[in-house]
């Protein structure tokens, strides 16, 4: 009974996450389209038959039965339109802003999620939080509240600098410059080996919950995660990573279930990860994706109307069919990898 409840909550968490990420993405397109004067025919969350509809002005707002997907249907987005407010009749700058806005919103969401997590957990600082009894730092006289300014003459700016310098050191003792009650002093401490094999001195970091610092670290975390994602995507094209390792909706649901066991903090990390992944993948130069549309806008800056809106729409249609085929393949792999073993077991 309890296991059934956990599985139900996993599905609920997954649905909420899908809806949030898709809503944020499509809302980015929506508000930017409205801002530059493009007519939006429908703003929908979900796919399939509508369970709720409401017409507000020129735009139909709808909630659809399947919580995977969504769209912001703009006039003249996929075909020729004579409407002066149609997407196809707007300036290249306006089009680019609308196309990029969806992914930009997902990046902003990732930064926001990281910021909230950091405000909750605290940001590690170069100030000593706790000193382990009997550790080299304890024997050397380090106390809670000491600010570590430098180690072996190397300036300390953040907690990670301390971990790196101590971890990479080879000497039996280290000279640490600290600031205590506004006064600077030097302390010589030994080094010990932790259970995981790291070289440590026996102190933990003090934590800060400064909102500005949280935003800065949230942006930095998002950037580092984006670099790693781009590296993996590059390996997909070079053969370093197999397509079989890609994860679709089924795999994401399982990931949500596994992550939720460890608490909302880790669920937040997963949300930021998927949001950033959605932003990056959507900007790939593939027809039907935002990146593909961006490429066509740039090409048509130099070629004029040699590529008609109808021709471009057909290319995007082929692209979306290929993406659907890839999604079916990835989903099938997820089922074989994750669900079939359960029935066999």
Q: Your description of this structure?
A:
The protein has helices at 2-35, 92-121, 136-140, 159-168, 211-238, 249-260, 264-282, 290-303, 309-344; strands spanning 40-56, 59-74, 123-131, 147-151, 154-155, 173-180, 183-190, 192-193, 199-200, 203-208. It has 345 residues and is α+β, with helices and mostly antiparallel strands. The chain folds into two domains: 2-121 and 215-344, no CATH class; 123-208, PDZ domain (Pdz3 Domain, Roll). Strands 5-4-6-7 form a four-stranded antiparallel beta sheet. Strands 1-2 form a two-stranded antiparallel ribbon. A hairpin with a 2-residue loop joins strand 6 (173-180) and strand 7. Helix 1 packs across helix 6 (249-260). The relative contact order is 0.12.
Number of strands: 10
Determine Rg (CA atoms, Å): 26 Å
The stretches of 5 or more residues where confidence is low (pLDDT under 50) are: 1-6
* Helix-strand topology string: HEEHEHEEHEEEEEHHHHH
- What's the tally of helices? 9
What spatial order of strands do you see in the largest sheet?
5-4-6-7
Summarize the biggest pleated sheet.
4 strands, antiparallel
- Describe the oligomeric state of these chains in a short phrase: single chain
Shape: elongated
What's the mean pLDDT score?
85
Q: Distance between the terminal alpha carbons, to the nearest Å? A: 19 Å
